[in-house]
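User:
I would dearly like some help making sense of a protein record. Take your time, and here it is.
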Amino acid sequence: MERRGRGSGQRRNNRSGRDRRDGQNGNDGPRAGGQQQRQRHQRQQDQDEQQQYEQQGQRQQQSSIIPQTSTPALTEAVPKDTPRFADMVGVHPALVQALTEDLKFDHMMPVQAATLHELLPPKRSDCLVQAKTGTGKTIAFLLPAIQTLLTQTHRSGRGAGGGISLLVISPTRELAMQIAKEAEGLLQRLRQYRVCIAIGGTNKDREEKQILAGCDILIATPGRLIDHMSNDYIRDAFSNLDTLVLDEADRLLDMGFMPALRDIVRALPDKASTNRQGMLFSATIAAHVEQVAGLVLSKGYQFISTIPAGEANTHERVPQHLVKVPTFAAVAPAMVGAIREEAVSLGQDAFKAIVFAPTAALADFYGDVLTNIPGLPPASVLHSRISQNRRTKITNDYRDAKSGVLIATDVIARGMDFPGVTTVFQVGIPADKESYIHRLGRTARAGADGRGIFVVAEAEDFFPRWTLKEISFEPRNADLSSAAQVYSIAEQRIDDGQKAKIYQAWLGYYKNWMKNLKWDKEQLVAEGNIFARDALASPETPPIQKSTIGKMGLRGTRGLVVVPDAPKARHGRGGGGGGGEGRSIGSGGRGGGGGGGGRRGGRF
C-alpha cells in the first residue's frame, strides 16, 4: 500500500495492522500500559457519550426511505492479519456494535485498515484513495463520516436532523442505493439519524419532502442533486455539511459529470470556513481524477493506494476469446452460439454471465432473442431506460441468483458487484479501452476463475487489433446455427416501432466510430439499412423523424427514410424521453414508427 502527502510528495511507511495490535497487546515496552489506559478511558468516554445520545429528545424510529436493495458481498477475501473493528477506539459504541454484532464484521479489509486512521476524527484528513470495487471501500468512507456526524451533532447541540452532515455523490442510481443501505446498516442502533437518496428515476417531490423533513446523510447522483440544489431550502440544508465524498470518482468523470461537480461544489458552503472534510475514492488515478481532487480536497491531501504494486488487473490474467463474424447481422447469432457453448461447458446451473451491449435498444433486442430461444439460461435486461423499481428488482434477483444471464449497458460496468459471474460477453465494440476493461472486471473476482468473450463484426476488427493490442485474444469459431431462429424472433416478436428504435440507436452509436470504420455518412446509413434488413427482419428501411435526423447530424444523407415530426401533445406527457444518468455513448433516441412487414432471409 502506498500513502503520501500530495502537498509535499513525501512517502510514509506505516506499521502494519499486526504491528499496531502488538502494541496494544503489550509488546511495545513501557508505552503499552499507558496506551491501554488511554484506550480504556476513551471507551468509557464513548459509553458516556452514547448514554447522552439516548437521553436526548430523539425522533421516533422511522421506516426506511431507501428502496430495498440487497447489500453485495465482498469480492475479496477478508484477511486475518488486519485490525479488528472491536478494537477501535474513538468510535461510537453503537457503530462498533453495528459492525461487529449486527453486520458480523471482524477484521478490517485492507482498504479500511489503510484509511480509517487518516479519515476518522480527530485527524479527518482529506484523502484521495485508490481502491477497487468490492474491497470494502464503502465502509471505509461511511464509518469516519458517520462518526464525524455523531461528534459534530453532539458538540454543537444541533441534534439529529439538524442539516445534511454527509453528502456522497455516486455515478449511478444502483450504486447510490447500495451505499444508502450500508449507511442504514451502520446506523441501525442510532435510528434518529436519517439517510436519504436523490437519484434519477424516482419522484423528485417525494425526495424533496424527505430531505427537508430532516436529512443527516444524503446519497445522490449528480444530475438529480443539481435539480434539488435549485431549491433554496435544500441548499440551506447543506450549511452544516461536514463531509463530501465522491465515490467512483474516475467513473463520474468518464461519464462527463465534471461540469456538474463544479456546479455542486460552488453551491456548497465554502470549504475553508466550514472545515469540511473531502474524500475521493477511485479505482484508477489519471490526470482528470487529480483535477477533481483539486476541486474537492485541500492542497495537502493524502494519497493512499490499496492496490499492491504489480498486482495484475483482470484483463491481464483472465482468458479472453475473440469471436469475429463477417457482418453485423451475424453478431446476435454468434452471441447465442457462444452463450450456448459456455452454458454446456460449465453446466447451466453454474453458468452466470453478463452480456454487455452498446446501447439500451440493442440490449432489449438481445434480451428478446435470448428469452425466446428454447434451452438457453434465463435472461433479464438492465439499462437506464427501465424504471427504477424494475431495475432494483432485476439487480437484486441477479445478485442473489446462482446462474443466469444479465444483458446490460455500461450502467453496471463499474461500481456494481455481482458474486459468481463466470463469463463476461461483450457484444459489439465498447466506448473505449477503459470500458472494455471495466466490463471484464465483473468476472474472476476474489480469486475465482472467469473468462471474457468478445463478439465483433469484421468491420469492428480494428478495436481488438489496435485499441486492445496488448491483450492476447484466443480466436474462437463462431457458431451461427441459431441464425434462422434469431431472424424469426425479429420478424415475429419485435414490432416495427421497436425495430425503428434499434435501427436508430445502431446508427447513433456507430456514427461515433465512422473514422475508425473508414465510413462516410452514406456508408453508415447503407450499413445500417443492411443491418435492419438482415438482423431485424425489416425489408423496408425504418423511418426516422426529421428533427431526430437533424440532431444526429445526418440531414440530407441518402438512404434514410424521413418522416415528419409527430405533432406535440397539448396535454399529458410527450413522447420519447431518455436515458437518465450513466449514459451509453450514442444510445439513440426513441424513434418514430416502424417499417413494413414482409419476409426476407437473413444473410451473413
Notes: The first strand starts at residue 2 and ends at 5. The two ends are 51 Å apart (CA to CA). Confidence is low (pLDDT under 50) at residues 6-36, 49-63, 572-604.
